[in-house]
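Notes to self after the call with IL:
- keep both proteins in one doc
- input above output, always
- annotate only the second one for now

Protein 1:
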Amino acid sequence: MAKSLIEELPRIVSEGRREAAQILERLSSGTQIGLQTNELVLPSKDVSGLFKGSSPQIPNAFNMAGGNGEWMNRLIYGDNLLAMQALLAGDAQTGLPSLRGKVDLIYIDPPFDSKADYRTKISLPGTDIQQKPTVIEQFAYADTWEQGTISYLKMIYPRLVLMREILSERSSIYLHIDWHIGHYVKIMLDDIFGKENFVDEIIWAYGSPSGGRAAGTKLVKMHESIFHYSKNYSKRTENKVFLPYSEKYIKDWFRFTDEDGRIYRQRMRGKDANGQIIWERQYLDESKGVPCSSVWSDIQQVYADPRAYKENQKGHSEIQNYDTQKPERLLERIIEHSSNSGDLVCDFFGGSGTTAAVAERLGRRWITCDIGKPASLVMRKRFIDQEVKPFLYQSIGDYQKEAFRNNKRYKHVGDLSQVVLGLYGALPFTPEQTNDRNFGYIKGTRTLVMVDSPNRLTTAATIRRAVEAKASLLGGDWEKVVVLGWNFAFDISSAIQKYQDSKVEVLVIPPDLLDKLAKKGYKKLIDDKSVRFSSLQYLVAKPLVVKQQGEQDEIVVELENYVLLSPDNIPLDDKDKEKLQKVLERDPLSLIEYWSIDPDYDGVTFRSTWQDYRENVDNDNDPLHCIYKTRLRVPHKAQRKVCIKAVDVFGFESQVVEEFIVHNS
């Protein structure tokens, strides 16, 4: 008979403590995970097809982040367990000190519905398609829900331990949850933070039953819980929150008007020496309102209604067309209640970016993180629309190497590399030849094949490793090396260009391969030869036109084409692959989610000095296309390197770099 969840809980807690302790021990031993900077985002979007401004006069993002002693807010793409390890370790290169004991407020809204559909709707000209999660996301969601609530609790426990490590002594953490698992998570929070540090259970009553929602015999669900804990109850930051008086309250209690027309009520202050009541006036215009209780019924949900979304675009509504988006007023109340101006606020399940967006508006510093590529794109766009201060867009360096090494779920990934080799038509080496099971070769040729892991990004370091293996493995003398990857870092195109003379080819493993293996099996896939490995996508720009005009250079940039890898290698259903193919044939540039330009690229950090993106309708009325031509006027330089980066609707990145000497017009 299977154990009940309450019987499993001690084991879950014990394993979670052990995992967190191992992570912290590795950090103290010098084994660290770092953050790599994809972009320094300067929130300057296109409004008219002409950019007039100064290219930031800094050699790279790191001077701004650390050399000048200035804090940089951060959007991190990747697993939050790894992101927190990087934040705890700190990074001297990017000017980031260890954040152990430095974070003042954490709000998290982790997914709590095991039956949720994690697909993302993508609107393209003339059609809509549904994108499945990336391979990295698939592994993460499978980890979270493989055993239902047990898996969820295993996922959340070590993350909460790391959050406690980065919280300051005056900090608070708010965990947003619902009835599925809230009572079990509450027990874990008591264990990690201490029952004595429990502050409140907030009931967010977000709506009233009506229409179809009220139909049936089951009581209508209309609230969620938010558990509020402190790091140290007596030292926590706590600002009193007041709500406006209702009209009825004002009518019932503020019944008097003075000679100046000011509305007031009388209240008893006490009695004098003779026992006479002393009355005082409380003026309405001086009153703060009603002290906020732990039941919040005045904040409604944000509904991701496509019609409302389109209607509100020009007004920059907070609606982001993101299913689990939380209202800004909810985060305003939390942030104002438990932090002060300048404090550091973190959200490790960033979603649509509401926490960071509100933190910015309220004068707080912020870090937000999400493992979903669609979420990262939504957040980046939202922050630019809000015209936030420059921020770093980062990802995990050497993605999930430590998680891969220590997570039992991936114990068969080594075998998977052998499967991929076979499907590509390569043979594995024998153990006597090499212990690295990620390498194989094409029989009858001198072609080496390397298979990267499904739960890490293929990076420039991966390409370098493959090139080194080509020169040394089994005596070297390989003519070519093929790298098969699942997920790719932002700088992969530059890495391929850097090693183009080394005869290295990079191909994409189909993201639905795991599904195909489950449905058809390895032998059938070998027999029907249905697995296709595609080349990476690439961007084509027309030759840049650069002219010196006095103290400025005018740069004309125009995109010409965007070549996407085969629809067969995008995580889509067959019917959506057909839709995508038609869009590729008639309007390939419409697949670009955003593109940006660094007119003074230093070869280290890309600075998004100018950008345009879908749904930016300040320069046109077309929410489904970017503009594809712009002019930039920037301070003159005799020699200039321009980098153009494009990110498509699926999160794939590509870039073009051009160097030239600027001639006076």
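Protein 2 (the one to annotate):
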Amino acid sequence: MKIAVAQANFTVGDLAGNAAKILDAAVRARSGGASLLLTTELGLSGYPPEDLLLRDEFYDSCARTLEDLARRVDGITLVVGHPHRNGGKRYNAASVIRGGRIVTTYLKHKLPNYTVFDEERYFDSGDQPCVFEHEGLRFGVNICADVWEEPAAVAAREAGAVVLLVLNASPYHMNKQSSRYEVIRDRVAETGLPVIYANQVGGQDELVFDGASFAVNGNGELTHQFPAFEEALGFIEIVEGVPVKGEIAPRLPLEAEVYQALTLGVRDYIGKNGFPGALLGLSGGVDSALTLAVAVDALGAGRVRAVMMPSQYTADMSREDARAEAEALGVRYTEIAIKPVFDAFQTALAGEFKGLPADTTEENLQSRIRGTLLMALSNKSGAIVLTTGNKSEMGTGYATLYGDMAGGFAVLKDIDKMLVYRLSNYRNTLSPVIPQRVITRAPSAELRPDQTDQDSLPPYEILDAIMEAYVENDLSPREIIAGGYARADVECVVRLVRLSEYKRRQSPIGIRITSRGFGKDWRYPITNKYRHQLD
């Protein structure tokens, strides 16, 4: 037999649109010779629906849509993920549809409640295996987290399954696919069952789903690997219960993988929310240059606008490089000088500031003027402002609240500074759009004469390593110091991370590409008197 896998880009809450995608995949799968179609976790509703799942009306709408879909599917068996309510309980479910009706429904056993997952908030757990027969073979069904531990897969085998179908909405982070392979091979070793793993693709707020669906045989060997970061309808031939080796899409290099995640995240956030385009402040620095490249690759040059807002501290090379970037990418480019506005602010505040030395107040005023100008252009055009700050800045508070943090979507929020450089060099291998001196020059906010970032921060290669250890790996400052980092640098970074929590809480959401971003999976209190013990 031939099984099809629909690696689709669903939209949360678009029940009719998601059902239409599933129906279209069923028609194409049948035309391609498949008799069984596997879709992804909660594909009918989109994933994750979050607090929509607390509303009975939402379950009622999903049930009506599922029944209508069942009536319309013809000539193929369909396994579809959906929210399900029964007997006052709510479940993450998958139903098998055949001949115009729902044959059986599986209720997810394992409800993840870590990192970005909150399924215990919404769902009750199922405890029964689901096995159905199709063309003489018995298929078991699991949903995502079920296969990260042993019991649900073993239960399917003990109920007679010879092939395991797994519906997933597994969000991307770097090196996630290797973890999936490892987990699935553990389940295969325990059960001896071949596994077909269907994963969602697309952007949903801060999450990006990479697809990259695959199949392994009963020996744990990869037999199929479908592309990452794109919709696909893949086909898997099964002979005597064993997947026959087929399409193996190549794995992407890490920089290419992350760049595609950013591009997909921007495209879907702007497209699914109906924004006509995007605009950003282009400073001549590497962060805004990379953000501009991602935006253009996601949306097309005609939907992106770049605004350079020079001050008296802006270097000539910054203006030259900003113009060169905009020209290389073909976007609309505007320059709006901020000195007249800055002078007006200083005049208005002269009485209050009399006798006080200039400090970060004046620096922040410049940033807030720029943020105000960008938001004004956004209001007039409807385009969303993309902020350009990176994870290193967000972590340490090296950003201005209501200034360069003002905007609707933070493209680089989970990209540390050293990765910004790597991604910029990678993008230039596709076409040279970022001038090399933007990448090689010392980074500066250009808010005072001769300023560089390292006036206030440790070198980025050190800062980023400490941030990764502390934020992503939960190492204590003592452990980080024991790993070879200077005590003064560790104390500085950890202190800045703590002090900046109130800023991050007010920052726009941004694309998550690490195992711990400053979003759904970072929940530290703003009011917090705990201090790490260093001695």
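Annotation: The first strand starts at residue 2 and ends at 7. The CA atoms of residues 466 and 490 lie 7 Å apart.
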